[in-house]
Amino acid sequence: MSRWTKRAWRTLEQWSGHEYVALVVRLYLGGVFVTACWHKIIDPATFALDVATYQFLPLWALHPFALLLPWVELFAGIMLMVGWRVRAAALVIAVMMLSFLVALAWALHLGLDMACGCFASQAAETEDPISWWTVVRDLGWLALALYVVVFDLRPLGADRLTTLKGATT
Question: Quick one: what percent of the chain has pLDDT higher than 90?
Answer without folding.
Answer: 66
